[in-house]
Amino acid sequence: MPDPLIGKVFDEFPDESEWDAIVIGSGPNGLIAAAYLAKAGVKVALVERRYEIGGGLATEEILFPGYSSNMHAVYHMMVDYMPVIQDFDLDNHALMWTKPNAQTGMVFEDGTSLLMARMVEDTKDSITKFSFKDAVAFGKLIRRWRKIVDEILGPATYIPPMSPLDISMAMQRTAVGQEMLELVEQSPLEIITNNFENDKVRAFLLYTSCMWGLDPRETGIGMFVALLLQRFGMNKCYCDGGSHKFAASLAREVVGNGGTIVDAAEVTNIIMEGGRVAGVQIAEGRTLRSKVVISTLDPHTTFLDLVGPENLPADLKESVEGWQYDKWSFYTLHIATKEPPKYKCDDNWINDAFMNIVGIEGLDQLLAHWDNVIGGSIDFNNFGGHATCESLFDPHLVHSPYGGYVSFFQMHAPYEIEGGWDQKGKELEEAILTKWQKAAPNMTRENIIKVGHETPVGIELRLPNMRRGAIKHGDYKPIQLGCFRPNQDCSSSATPVEGLYVCGASNYPGGMVLGGPGYLGANKVAEDLGVTKWWKPTKAMEKYIRTYLE
Ligand SMILES: Cc1cc2nc3c(=O)[nH]c(=O)nc-3n(C[C@H](O)[C@H](O)[C@H](O)COP(=O)(O)OP(=O)(O)OC[C@H]3O[C@@H](n4cnc5c(N)ncnc54)[C@H](O)[C@@H]3O)c2cc1C
């Protein structure tokens, strides 16, 4: 009974409640899954451990009040393809994207530089400074790879995975498909060294292709070179106002369509009854009951911690135990400065670039740096990373009377490091500032307003589902990709545990803000619940289905 004086204030959310579906985790994938289902009329609760929704889409004042930083995702490479943006017409929430023309730069110690721009011809001009042959090769390849991305990799991100055999057969249908298969067979290192001759150009293209955690020497993942150079190297977007605005737009769709978001509510247990899921328990003691639970967390948390090994078929338990997290994590130095970094180099456009790689001089050095990181160390005399001045694209991030700019320098880093991150984190801050200042001489102590950093351990503390700082919730290698992500039983979102679905970054198509797992999860749950889908595939997806699947 509502209290006659204060109404329903204290019993708004009951100790026990009933839902059609519960989504665990409000990162991009959880938000997307919940938004589609809510709009389909499913009574959805989206349950989030943190105070803020968004997961990897966080924009927070971590340096000082008045200075907001994008803590994690800042480069959005699939904006042109993600169905969710058009399906919900997210522009209605004033969601806007900037796609800078100067996309990815690399600055060398001798003052030379390389720049990938949106325009192929601009990129070729930059590569010509080092090798005319490489510039021509880049132009030819990137145009062919654009077709592979537009016709195959882009749309396939939002279509359920197929077995390697089915992919091979489907791709035989077109010349573009056959070229994609040839790429798959090669390692990123082979693709780059076979097609380009200049050492700096090779280092630049390999960094851009593998920076999200591809093993440069691994075969079976070559298609990512086409995807990453085309989408990430040349077409990434910035979310105006900070990445959190993407999360906020999606959250408004969840709530606007009748869903509920329960924040500051850690799921501690997935309730099992009669061999199937029956709901979740949250840390404060409430129970949310539902026959459908959709987890966007990593496999260990979902299956071993929340469902419990005793409730899993033996082969599923074994495959979850064998899941491997990303081969490296990220260390990010966030910084507020009076002036933006001004790079001392031969191309003024570098100062406008969305991202600049600093500290890598050639291919062998890059490979040695990555080998160190994978081996659990950082050579302070030989490391590199990438930097972005977010304020250049987004003045809204600074609301301080002192003014200034926010930027970050990010580098690959091991989860476990000798000496521990408490000590190494501070030392690395100094080493990065010294390195950055060499490339951008105005990054002096006088210019700096405030510095802070997030280590791999810090990532895991904020988002425990990014175990070992795993930004993609799991490594990218052939046996953890496609229909094997996270395993053959669960890659299409449904799992052998009745009523349990999975659709976070550890599911096909994978990590980063692709919007794929959440979209596919919503599709699968809608089909299984017999709910009418109010959305239909994008035109690019329809074309892909016609060409390769029908
Ligand atoms: C430093 C860094 C930089 C990155 N940069 C980029 C980039 O530039 N571009 C890009 O595309 N991607 C980037 N990523 C990767 C990207 O952020 C992730 O791959 C993506 O956010 C995964 O989305 P998700 O929805 O699957 O999971 P997450 O975003 O991880 O969301 C999971 C959510 O679940 C919540 N949660 C965890 N445990 C529980 C629980 N028990 N109960 C309830 N809720 C729980 C978490 O708090 C979180 O909100 C970056 C990541 C990091 C860490």
Helix content: 25-40%
- In total, how many beta strands? 20
Sketch the major β-sheet: 7 strands, mixed
CATH class annotation of the largest domain: Alpha Beta
How large is the share of residues in beta strands? 15-25%
Shape: globular
Computed CA radius of gyration, to the nearest angstrom: 23 Å
Please list the strands of the largest sheet in the order they lie side by side: 8-7-16-17-18-15-19
Q: What is the straight-line distance between the termini? A: 57 Å
CATH fold-level label of the largest domain? Polyamine Oxidase, Chain A, domain 2
In the predicted model, the low-confidence regions spanning at least 5 consecutive residues are: none
Contiguous helical run count:
17
Overall mean confidence score, pLDDT: 96
Number of domains: 2
In this entry the ligands are: flavin-adenine dinucleotide
The second-level CATH architecture of the largest domain is Alpha-Beta Complex
Computed structural class: alpha/beta
